[in-house]
Design a protein that fits this description.
Order of helices and strands: EEEHEEEHHHEHEHEEHHEEEEEEEEEE
CATH superfamily of the largest domain: P-loop containing nucleotide triphosphate hydrolases
Subunit structure: The complex is composed of two ATP-binding proteins (PotA), two transmembrane proteins (PotB and PotC) and a solute-binding protein (PotD).
GO molecular function: ABC-type polyamine transporter activity; ATP binding; ATP hydrolysis activity
Helix content: 10-25%
Largest sheet: 6 strands, mixed
Number of domains: 2
Bound molecules: adenosine-5'-triphosphate
Family: Belongs to the ABC transporter superfamily. Spermidine/putrescine importer (TC 3.A.1.11.1) family.
Catalytic activity: ATP + H2O + polyamine-[polyamine-binding protein]Side 1 = ADP + phosphate + polyamineSide 2 + [polyamine-binding protein]Side 1
Shape: elongated
Number of helices: 8
Distance between the termini: 36 Å
Keywords: ATP-binding, Cell membrane, Membrane, Nucleotide-binding, Translocase, Transport
Strand content: 25-35%
């Protein structure tokens, strides 16, 4: 097991900067996720940790050891690629044994280690099957076994579940977590799927166009996003422009035409353009009159049923604002009716005022 330290990492391809000034410490045994939209630099960063790319600037360390320009085969990392990169005409055994053969291990040791790891990923019955005759989920397990069998210090997973259907993705998510806990291995996981990131990670780094926007635990990232990009990318949220009114010491929403009570008021965020973010599940709605701060009258425009949840879109009176509200499905008697007039409250403790993300 190793910790990974990235100090001031920049990666340029010609004139294009794919990753900029990245500082990051991943602790031993941690499940750490790089999350962000397509093209934001997640894979490039992972490849610099694997050694497939060397950084243009900055240092990569495993524990205290400088690995910045060490070749991939001398890093002892196990990597699982998005397309698995298996040898289709070899058997499961041959695929998994490959890395050990390259490392010139003895035949008996190879056999034992391959059988042990196939037991762990529950593929022992398929040991002699050709990889091309396996399902997507089974191939994914072979790729995991192949990465784990070399007993890597660090496991690197690049969008490993993106080729699987939704049900299999759920199953493999649990499977990867189970293996990670069993081996206690430092794991770095790349995804653009926020649910994968939130459910699996000890900590997440949120990337956007080559920049790391925030590092934190799933609950920190979801509940205390540092800017509008993070608030919008992780989960769903209602975002509205707000201004800080110095004279009255309060936030004002032009869209809602009203001052907005916020606890705590966070005056350090009063410089530059600001947004308020409120999660759809945090908004209170009632057909009965509501009292207190941040109460608005609105009309229900649309009600969408997803099975476990009900989403309602509420147009606030005398404004252009439509708020999305989400409630767990508590039965048909609780669904809002389209066109009904309702009271909406944005609880001050749930409103978060954040700066707009800087555009680089
Ligand atoms: N070898 C390369 N040469 C030139 N540009 C590259 C190279 N590799 C990546 N890039 C560019 O760097 C940027 C970041 O790419 P990267 O693959 O790291 O993104 P990503 O966040 O992993 O995206 P995705 O989720 O689509 O895989 C992209 O704009 C990409 O086109």
């Amino acid at each position: 097991m190793s910790s990974v330290t990235l100090s001031n990492i920049t990666k340029r391809f010609g004139n294009f900067t794919a990753v900029k000034d990245l500082d990051l410490v991943i602790e031993e045994g941690e499940f750490f996720t790089f999350l962000g939209p397509s093209g934001c630099g997640k894979t490039t960063t992972l490849r610099m940790i694997a050694g497939f790319y060397y950084p243009s600037e900055g240092k990569v360390k495993f524990n205290e050891k400088d690995m910045t320009t060490v070749s991939p085969e001398n890093r002892n990392t196990g990597m699982v690629f998005q397309n698995y990169a298996l040898f289709p005409h070899m058997t499961v055994y041959e695929n998994v044994a490959f890395g050990l053969k390259v490392r010139k291990k003895k035949k008996a040791e190879i056999k034992k280690r391959v059988e042990d790891v196939l037991e762990k990923v529950r593929l022992k019955p398929f040991i002699d099957r050709q990889v091309s005759q396996l399902s997507g989920g089974q191939q994914q397990r072979v790729a995991l076994a192949r990465a784990l069998v070399i007993e890597p210090d660090i496991l690197l997973l690049d969008e490993p579940l993106s080729n699987l259907d939704a049900r299999l993705r759920d199953e493999m998510r649990n499977e990867i977590l189970r293996l990670q806990r069993e081996y206690g291995i430092t794991t770095i996981y790349v995804t653009h799927d926020q649910v994968e990131a939130l459910t699996m990670s000890d900590r997440i780094a949120v990337f956007n166009v080559g920049n790391c926007q925030q590092i934190g635990t799933p609950t920190e990232i979801y509940n205390q996003p540092v800017n509008d990009f993070v608030a919008e990318f992780i989960g769903e949220t209602n975002l509205l422009d707000v201004d800080w009114k110095e004279d009255k010491e309060e936030f004002y929403s032009e869209g809602l035409n009203k001052s907005i009570a916020v606890i705590p008021p966070e005056p350090e965020m009063s410089e530059g353009p600001l947004k308020m973010s409120i999660r759809p599940e945090a908004i209170q709605v009632s057909e009965e009159e509501l009292s207190g701060p941040n109460v608005f009258l609105g009309n229900v425009q649309l009600v969408q049923f997803t099975g476990e949840a009900v989403h309602s879109f509420i147009a606030i009176h005398e404004s252009d604002v439509t708020l999305k509200v989400t409630d767990l499905n508590k039965g048909p008697s609780t669904y809002l009716k389209e066109n009904a007039q309702v009271y909406v409250q944005l609880p001050p403790s749930q409103v978060r005022v954040v700066p707009k993300a800087k555009k680089e």
